[in-house]
Amino acid sequence: MVDNRRVVKTLFVILSEIVLGCNKSESGLALPLVRDSLGVSIVSNPMRESKVPTIGITFDSSITIDGVELLRAKSARWLGPRTGVVFDQASSEVFLFDLPTGRMRRIGDQGDGPGEFRVIGNVYVCGRDSIAVYGLPTRLALFDSAGRFVREHQMALLKRGLHGVTLDCSAVLGVETRRSANGVRDRDILVFALGIMQGNGTSVVAEALSPARGTVLFHGRSVRLPIPFSAFPVWAFRDSLLYLGNGDTPEVRVYNQAGILIRIIRWETKPMPLTQADHDSYERIRSELDERVGKGTKEDFPPLREFDLPTLKPVYNEFLVTEEGQLWVQEYPRIWEGFIRLFGNSLSEGASRWWVFSASGMLVGRVVIPKGVMVTDVRKGMILGVWSDSSDIQHIRLLKLAEGVR
Fold it and tell me: Which of 29, 108, 135, 198 has CA 20 to 30 A from 271's CA?
C-alpha cells in the first residue's frame, strides 16, 4: 500500500489509461502495453499462472569456491564475468572470489582508518567493476576490482542503512522513516531518497507504507511489533532505477532517479490463504530457535495467537534485478519469510520459486531454485547462490539458466 496522495494518483492513472497498442517484445511476441496520460508505461502479463513456462536450470559442479568458512553470507554479487564479491555478516568481512581458481581472499581490514571497518552493513557493486562497502553507521568506502582501497565518504543518510548505489558510483539509496500523517494507524512512511556522495544533498525517489504492527506481549511487556505474514514493502535498486512493491498484489512499480514513475509491471496470480499448516510451521521453527540460534531466541518471536493475522499471505517477498535489466520476483515462501531473512535459507522448507521478467517487463517464465540455495545475483544466465550444508557452513554455488534466457 502507499499513502493517500499516491493512491489518488494511482486511481487517476488507471481511470485515464489510453491504449496505444501492442509493442514487440524481445522475443517477438506481442507485449500488452498501455501508456497513461502521465506517460507511465503499464505492462500487463495476462498469461494464466498455469501457462507460465518453467525455465530449466543446471548446477555447475565444476566450480567450487572454498578457503573461507562463511557463516552468514548476507550478499554475494557478480563483479565481472568470472569474479565476484561476498559479504559475510557473521564475521563482518568482505571477500573477493575468483571462479577459475576457486579461491577467496579478504579485502579491507578491521579498524577505523581508510579502507578499514569495525562493523559492515552491506556490500554493493557499482560502475560494473567497483565495490562499495557500507561501514556502520555512516561510512561508505569504494574499492577497485582488485580489492584496492580508492576513496571514502561520510554520509548522514546512511544512518538508517544503505540500500543501493547508482551505476556511476555517484549517489546512494537510503531509506528514512517518518510518522504517517494521513490517519493510517500503526503504519509509518518509508521514504526512499538518493544522496549524493560529494555533498549533503538528498532527493526523494518514492514512498511506501511500513509493515502493519500489532500489540503483543514481548519479554513481559506490551510492545508493537510487525505482524507476521502481513504485506510489507519490497524493493531493489539497480542502474539508478528503484523497483518497488508492497507484496499484496502482483505488481511492481519502477521509478527513475528523479522520482518519476516510469513503468508498472503486472501479472496474473492468486494470493495464497494463510492456513493451519503455516501456523504449525511457524510454531515448530520458533520452538527450534533456542537450539539452533541460541538460548532465549524463541522468546524474541511471540506466538502467532498474539497477533491479528491477515487471511492471505503476500504474493512475493523479494526482488532481484540483473545487470541486463531482468526483474526476478520471488514467490512468498512456504514459511514466514522473516525467519529466512533473519537466519538464512537453511530454515526453508522447500524450493524457492521466481517469476522472471524481461527488461521491458514481459513475463518470460518461472525458475525453481533447489531447497537451501539463496539466490543473490544473476548475470548473463549465471545464477550466483549461497548454499548451507548440514553444519550451517555456507558455500558459493553456481547455477546456469537454460540457453536462450540470458
Answer: 29
Q: What are phi and psi of 286, to 5 degrees?
A: -55, -40
Mean pLDDT for the stretch of residues 143-157: 91
Cell 495467537 -> residue: 305
SS3 content of the chain, % helix, strand, coil (to 5): 15, 45, 40
Cβ–Cβ under 8 Å, residues 334 and 350: yes
Q: Nearest-CA neighbor of 166 among 240, 62, 81, 106?
A: 240
| pLDDT reading at 289 higher than 50 | yes
Residues 6+ apart with CB under 8 A from 198: 153, 170
Share of the chain above pLDDT 70, in %: 86
What grid cell was written down for 136?
556502520
Cβ atoms of 316 and 251 closer than 8 Å: no
pTM above 0.90, yes or no: no
Instruction: List the beta strands (DSSP E) in 81-161.
Output: 83-88, 93-98, 103-107, 109-110, 116-117, 120-126, 130-135, 139-143, 149-154
66 touches 74 (CB < 8 A): no
Between the alpha carbon of residue 17 and those of residues 32, 35, 252, the distances in Å are: 13, 6, 17
Would you call 245 helix, strand, or coil by DSSP? strand
Quote the Cα angle for 194-196-199, to 5°: 140
Is the link from the previous residue into 137 a cis peptide, with omega within 30 of 0? yes
Domains and CATH numbers, the chain: 4-401 (2.120.10.30)
State the greatest distance between any 2 C-alpha atoms of the chain, in Å, as a whole number: 61
> Which residue would you say has higher pLDDT here, 194 or 182?
194
Which pLDDT score is estimated for 1? 40
Q: Which positions ≥6 away from 9 have C-beta within 8 Å?
A: none
Q: How far apart are CA 377 and CA 124, in angstroms?
A: 11
Query: Pick from 287, 371, 290: which is nearest to 333 by CA?
Result: 371
- Residue 103: strand pairing partners: 66, 98
Residue 398: φ, ψ to 5°: -120, 130
Distances 402 to 26, 40, 329, 383, 398 between C-alpha atoms, Å: 17, 32, 18, 11, 13
Distance, in Å, from the CA atom of 235 to the CA atom of 343, rounded to the nearest integer, reads 20
Alpha-carbon distance 365 to 116, whole Å?
43
